Amino acid sequence: MWGVGLAIYVTAVFHRTSLAVAGLEATERFDLSASQLGAFTVVQLLVYAGMQIPVGLLIDRFGPRTVLTVGVITISTGQAGFALATTFSAALGARVFVGFGDAMTFICVLRLVNTWFEPRRVPLLTQLTGSTGQIGSIVAAIPMTWALSELGWTTAYLISAATGPALLITLLLLVRDTPTERHHRGHPMSRLTLMSTLRASWAQPGTRLGFWVHFTTPFSASMLVMLWGYPFLVLSEGVSETVAGALLSLIIVAVVASGPVLGWIVGNHPWHRSTVALTTVAGMVVTWSAVLLWPGDAPLWLLVLMVVATGCGGPASMIGFDVGRTSNPPDRMASASGIINVAGFVATLVAVFGIGAVLDLATPGSSDDYSAGAFRLAMSVQYLLWGLGTLQIWRYRTIVRRTIGREAVDGGSTMLPLP
Ligand SMILES: N[C@@H](Cc1c[nH]cn1)C(=O)NCC(=O)O
């Protein structure tokens, strides 16, 4: 069950990031300005974030198998549409479909993990899901670059869309919602019940703690991988294009390598989950500060430390889902995951936008030759997000620790009995 779900999630991450290496080709094919190119990423992220809460509710109502089926069909249709699009508006519409399908993948896989594995194994498998999924972005970077240059736009994107039918058949043949049911249906929900499910999830301090952990930890890596990493490293830190590419791949290596370690710590020491998240944020703040304050170009060893610390933020974000899991009953689990998942993508959007806006303000009239000084200022936008997130993590961790107590947390529950 998990293998099929994971294969679908790796493919979704591949589709999500498959535009990162196609910027130049897209600019030529659709005759785009820089902001139109950026719109593809922004629209996709907006759709993804906006769909998280509805998708969480749909999973609780119709089960992960059904929602995943719709997700695979939608994302493959979007990617095929992107292959065939010849105008900016058609391509943008196709990216909306990719965002919709993508939004339906991850929390379905989390739900399958929660149903099919014993609770003590769930933290590690949740981590392995998040970390292994990021391999999709390496596939998007290397083979996709080759396919675009050797096979051309339409064939490269059509081949990538063709993974959809194969995954769909495997999904329909193998995946069951629970060991006893192919389809698990929750209770039909009126608008009132939907609202009360969301309210009940959000009322749990553990859901809020999970939200802020997911807000604070992954955005720096996502912002680097999705948009600003390459220009920052080349234009501001003076590394070659090859080294910049290698450093961005190292982020994914750090994600994949640190995931199981963090998963093990979190599974064995639930009381210390928020401490692990805060330590990871501190690692990012310290290494980023050293890079940004270094006089002139930062040395390569420091850039390596910074990207590794930043990569660890991805797996640390999974702590958010784990706290959400132990703070909600199984029939509200996907809704809580949806709420928590919105946070990281909203923080990424704010970082991507904020950095672009500061770059434009600091370098008036020039869009492709930002100075090192402008980049340093722009990258400092991240401190606002880390600062807000850290305060909120501290606030809700204090509430959880005070109201629930160590024995219950170590026993696997952060659920507060509410009226
Ligand atoms: N935080 C990520 C997952 C992750 C784990 N390790 C690195 N990244 C996340 O929010 N995932 C949701 C998704 O759809 O990818």
UniProtKB/TrEMBL annotation:
<comment type="function">
    <text>Lysosomal dipeptide uniporter that selectively exports lysine, arginine or histidine-containing dipeptides with a net positive charge from the lysosome lumen into the cytosol. Could play a role in a specific type of protein O-glycosylation indirectly regulating macrophages migration and tissue invasion. Also essential for liver homeostasis.</text>
</comment>
<feature type="transmembrane region" description="Helical">
    <location>
        <begin position="276"/>
        <end position="294"/>
    </location>
</feature>
<dbReference type="GO" id="GO:0005886">
    <property type="term" value="C:plasma membrane"/>
</dbReference>
<feature type="transmembrane region" description="Helical">
    <location>
        <begin position="242"/>
        <end position="264"/>
    </location>
</feature>
<dbReference type="GO" id="GO:0005765">
    <property type="term" value="C:lysosomal membrane"/>
</dbReference>
<comment type="subunit">
    <text>Homodimer. Interacts with lysosomal protein GLMP (via lumenal domain); the interaction starts while both proteins are still in the endoplasmic reticulum and is required for stabilization of MFSD1 in lysosomes but has no direct effect on its targeting to lysosomes or transporter activity.</text>
</comment>
<dbReference type="InterPro" id="IPR020846">
    <property type="entry name" value="MFS_dom"/>
</dbReference>
<feature type="transmembrane region" description="Helical">
    <location>
        <begin position="125"/>
        <end position="148"/>
    </location>
</feature>
<dbReference type="Pfam" id="PF07690">
    <property type="entry name" value="MFS_1"/>
</dbReference>
<feature type="transmembrane region" description="Helical">
    <location>
        <begin position="342"/>
        <end position="362"/>
    </location>
</feature>
<feature type="transmembrane region" description="Helical">
    <location>
        <begin position="209"/>
        <end position="230"/>
    </location>
</feature>
<keyword id="KW-0813">Transport</keyword>
<dbReference type="InterPro" id="IPR052187">
    <property type="entry name" value="MFSD1"/>
</dbReference>
<keyword id="KW-0458">Lysosome</keyword>
<protein>
    <recommendedName>
        <fullName>Lysosomal dipeptide transporter MFSD1</fullName>
    </recommendedName>
</protein>
<dbReference type="GO" id="GO:0022857">
    <property type="term" value="F:transmembrane transporter activity"/>
</dbReference>
<feature type="transmembrane region" description="Helical">
    <location>
        <begin position="92"/>
        <end position="113"/>
    </location>
</feature>
<keyword id="KW-0472">Membrane</keyword>
<feature type="transmembrane region" description="Helical">
    <location>
        <begin position="154"/>
        <end position="175"/>
    </location>
</feature>
<feature type="transmembrane region" description="Helical">
    <location>
        <begin position="66"/>
        <end position="86"/>
    </location>
</feature>
<keyword id="KW-0812">Transmembrane</keyword>
<dbReference type="InterPro" id="IPR036259">
    <property type="entry name" value="MFS_trans_sf"/>
</dbReference>
<dbReference type="InterPro" id="IPR011701">
    <property type="entry name" value="MFS"/>
</dbReference>
<feature type="domain" description="Major facilitator superfamily (MFS) profile">
    <location>
        <begin position="1"/>
        <end position="397"/>
    </location>
</feature>
<feature type="transmembrane region" description="Helical">
    <location>
        <begin position="38"/>
        <end position="59"/>
    </location>
</feature>
<comment type="similarity">
    <text>Belongs to the major facilitator superfamily.</text>
</comment>
<feature type="transmembrane region" description="Helical">
    <location>
        <begin position="374"/>
        <end position="394"/>
    </location>
</feature>
<feature type="transmembrane region" description="Helical">
    <location>
        <begin position="300"/>
        <end position="321"/>
    </location>
</feature>
<keyword id="KW-1133">Transmembrane helix</keyword>
